[in-house]
Amino acid sequence: MTSPASHDDRYDEPDQLRDQLRRLLRYRATIATGLVLGLLGGALLVLLSAGSYRSAGEVLVRSRTDPFSTFGVAADNQVSMGTERQIALSATVAARAARALGRPSKAAALQADLRVTNPPDTQVLRFEYTAGSAKRAARVTNAFAEAYLADRQDRTRAMVRRMTSGLEQQIALLTRRIDAKSDDAASAAALRDQVGALQKRASDLRSYDTSGGDVVRRAEPPARPSGPGPAWLLGLGLAGGLLLGLLLAWLRSALEPRARSVGEVQAALGAPVLGILPGPDADDADLLVVGRAGGSRAEAYRTLAFRLRAAEGRTASGTAAGATAPGTLLVVAPKEDRDAEAAAVNLAAAFAESGDEVLLVDATASASGLPARLPLPAGAALPAGAPEGGAVVDAGTAGRFVLLPDGRGPGGADGPAAPVVTRALPYAGSGRPVLFVTRPLLAHTDALAVAQRVDGVLVAGRLDRSRRDDLRRVRELIDCSGGHLLGAVLDSGARRGPLRRAADAVRRRRLRRQEPAAAPSTRVGDLVGELPAPAHDDRLSVSR
């Protein structure tokens, strides 16, 4: 058996990329939320780093040559640059720099934003400081460089004092020995030579340049902030927000239990979607719109009726060469919803508009059943062969059809629906269409009992409310009961645009004035390309 075609080219299955993009774009609010969060994050980065300036200065560390160095040791090996870097980062240097800046209590805070590096194979220390203003960054950087040199100079002077003090002690000791050996001229002369050498060494120490090094590059105020500018940060925030929004939208799409597209409904139900109904306007509050209200919703029901005829024609003959009467059809919703009742009523009116003698069976056992919500003209005679207890429904310009209410009533809701079904089935023996509407399939067993006795089952639901798991259960239950699932009709719930609403209002005013309407066959023919107007009950011409 060939599966019926989809209801419209607009809802053909797209490629995987387009389908995935469509799924993500359903969650526009989530994507917009991600963009807003990214923009706020970028603005926060601007506030934190847009006013951040970094200034750098360099200091050449002087080696301690003789008399401090060991004989034979190169000058480059007399300075441990790793040790000097740690000293430059020490709390002692930070405290000296804070005093020079006039903020002795902020030494720890100043030290936190300082960075000292040593380029490879050099005796240069590079000081970098980050501050909120360019001048402050340069000022603090120079303060740390000068504080380090001053600290190293103090350490060198302290070493000179210690060594000079040791030499003076040696000189004093030798002088006392010279006085003790004044009678030994040779020994006294030798001691005097030693004293002279020590005095010369002490004199050299006192004259030694104790400066720690030289500033080879002073820090200057930077011309622009460090890092990316505000435009880059905002752009980065927007890009990150877009990625976040897309990720959240993908997670929602993956975890969404509802069928949000025609493709998802078809995949879960295992049958095509035969119709998409536009959402009703305020003027479309009535249950019956075909033949009475007009508009795009009524036209969608007429299109659905035509496709059901084509589906039944293929089911019966295996080809689409001709269409037959719809036969017996069950319209049912997965769960509690009035979509099944609206679809059944308007399909009955659409079939009656094509000249069929339609019987609509209300097996919902509801207190507010269809008789209370449909126009039933008083004293209207039932057509020949109609079941007893039926009533005639006036569908306006579409004609009339017969409604067979559920004899159980609301008090007998737990009883079986078989009696009313048995009474109605003989009516379809002469080729007249019979439509059944029952309680939800997943809530009661009435629908399964009817599904195995009718020619086809039409599932009615909402596009954004039907759950995929419910649709899969519907398919499994209908298959297990031996029924034939024709497809689904979905109510999109979308409002019509202002131009379409204005056109529908004009059409409704024409109907109220009872202006001549086009022949029913012509109206159906408009949906398939201006088909010829059929003779009385010439149903085969509808599918040509």
UniProtKB/TrEMBL annotation:
Keywords: Membrane, Transmembrane, Transmembrane helix. Signal peptide: none annotated. It comes from the Bacteria. The chain crosses the membrane at residues 27-50, 231-251. Residues 535-544 have a biased composition (Basic and acidic residues). InterPro entries: Bact_polysacc_biosynth/exp (IPR050445), P-loop_NTPase (IPR027417). SUPFAM superfamilies: P-loop containing nucleoside triphosphate hydrolases (SSF52540). Residues 505-544 are annotated as: Disordered. This is Lipopolysaccharide biosynthesis protein. It comes from Streptomyces cinereospinus.
